[in-house]
TrEMBL record:
Keywords: Membrane, Transmembrane, Transmembrane helix
Protein's name according to its UniProt entry: HPP family protein
Regions crossing the membrane: 28-45, 57-90, 110-133
Pfam families according to UniProt: TM_HPP
Organism annotation: Paraburkholderia metrosideri
Segments forming domain HPP transmembrane region: 2-141
Length: 146
């Protein structure tokens, strides 16, 4: 129940930001981010570095491949593969972010997509997660590095 409550609160707040500002704060992969953030908060994939870093890195790669190579299934697959490797290399693996290059190739957004919804939305989710877990478990998130 705690995981569902956290996911509801986070997505409702980010959705409200989108509605109030008429800006696209929501990214399809954020639903899966909430599964990790609120269902498995101690997971390495659920930490702020991974949530924010993974989303920003994969969106950047997706945008670079889209704008340099153009649309198509081969550039999309290459972007997703490269994004996966870079997340692993930089230790910012966040599995939901692996879908960001695919989302980018489907939507074909401009460069502003990197800031909104990607960076600002991921930061908002991490902040909401921190507030939520501070209230619910009295400061149990993020998990200290091991």
């Amino acid at each position: 129940m705690l995981a569902g409550l956290g996911a509801f609160a986070a997505l409702a707040l980010v959705g409200m930001l989108a509605q109030k500002t008429s800006q696209p704060w929501i990214l399809g992969s954020f639903g899966a981010t909430c599964v990790l953030l609120f269902g498995f908060p101690a997971s390495p994939f659920s930490q702020p570095r991974n949530i924010i870093g993974g989303h920003v890195l994969t969106s950047l790669v997706g945008l670079l491949f889209l704008h340099l190579l153009g649309p198509g299934y081969l550039p999309m697959a290459a972007a997703a593969a490269c994004a996966t490797m870079l997340m692993m290399l930089t230790r910012t693996v966040h599995p939901p972010a692996g879908s960001n290059p695919v989302i980018i190739f489907v939507a074909q957004p401009g460069w502003s997509f990197l800031l909104l919804p990607t960076l600002f939305g991921a930061c908002a989710l991490a902040l909401i997660g921190w507030l939520y877990w501070t209230i619910v478990k009295r400061g149990s998130w993020p998990t200290p590095p091991q």
